Amino acid sequence: MDDKLMLMIPGPTPVPEKVLSAMAKHPIGHRSGDFSKIQAEIVENLKWLHQTQNDVLILAASGTGAMEAGIINFLSAGDRVLVGCNGKFGDRWAEVCDAYGVNAERITAEWGQPLGPEQFRERLERDREKQIKAVIITHSETSAGVINDLETINRHVKAHGEALIIVDTVTSLGATNVPVDEWGLDVVGSGSQKGYMMPPGLGFVSVSAKAWEAYKTAKLPRYYLDLGKYRKSAAKDTTPFTPAINLFFALQTALQMMKAEGLETIFARHHRQSRATRSAIAALGLPLFTTDECSSPAITAVAPDRVDAEQIRSVMRKRFDIALAGGQDHLKGKIFRIGHLGFVADRDILSAIAALEATLQELGYESFSPGAGIAAAAKSFNAL
Description:
43% of the residues lie in helices and 15% in strands. The two termini are 35 Å apart. The mean pLDDT is 97. Helix 4 links the parallel strand 3 (80-85) and strand 4 (103-108). Strands 2-10-9-8-5-3-4 form a seven-stranded mixed beta sheet, with helices on both faces. Strands 1-12-13-11 form a four-stranded mixed beta sheet. A two-stranded antiparallel sheet has the order 6-7. Helix 1 packs antiparallel against helix 10 and helix 12 packs across helix 13. The chain has two domains: 17-260, Type I PLP-dependent aspartate aminotransferase-like (Major domain) (Aspartate Aminotransferase, domain 2); 263-382, Alpha-Beta Complex (Aspartate Aminotransferase, domain 1). With 384 residues, the protein is of the alpha/beta class. Keywords: Aminotransferase, Pyridoxal phosphate, Transferase.
């Protein structure tokens, strides 16, 4: 059956009909008063979502573009930074630093394991001459289904006193608590196709006063991604370059929906669905790739040992029109990932688990009692 695809991946995520309908409106002039009113509303609601009074700037870019902007606007070639690497995206930010001549010292953990806050503490405390200019962290590392202890790592950065904290919240903002002002986060990047419940195409960067001070002396080349230009234009409710106008319509609607649901309700929904999914996977006898303590609320990573991960994904897609994510890099073919990020309801989790049970039976996997996954997910939902 056509047009029944169900996205259960970490992005792009499902998009509400109201958001899709908003995108279908005719464009308006981006230098008009009408557009400025929309931008003013959007920025106010972005600050609500980020829990900040800092600037929140909007780019026509993906989350990667937002993070690249968040790195190059506040650093110079040769600067020493610490980059947390326990998945594909942490590795990516280190590669961005390498590309611009920033001296990236990688602090690593195995994929599926969280970054160790003590490693950051030790490196930062040894830096008595305050040469470390920034610490770059991926909060929710969806390539491995892990959430890192940003709050603790950030405390060590704050104790250092000089270093900026630059954070990839691409799959954590809008899924779990990221109180930018309370924690004093300096640069926070995210992307529209995740917790924002809209298509790809917009990137967001929150910038603190401390980061703007660093901007004044940063010397890396930048033009389109020069956040100073965006800040100057945003003060007048406009943009320095042509924006993705119809995505602004979508963003306006998505943020209105999120505000109506409420932050605490949004966070509780993501954590509830994560727990239910993990309970179901365990009941099916499939090994989880991460522990409960460090599992991302955006995605559940599964490492099947008696059935092929890619066969599971293939049958789910062909028989049930449900898209699951595969493993990346060295985990390709070894894990599959079930997304529960953004516009996902409890019934979507139940539908995906039911289809997964049927898929496992089709593939001859017999290490569970039929209905065990559904029963475990339902019990988890009913307990809350």
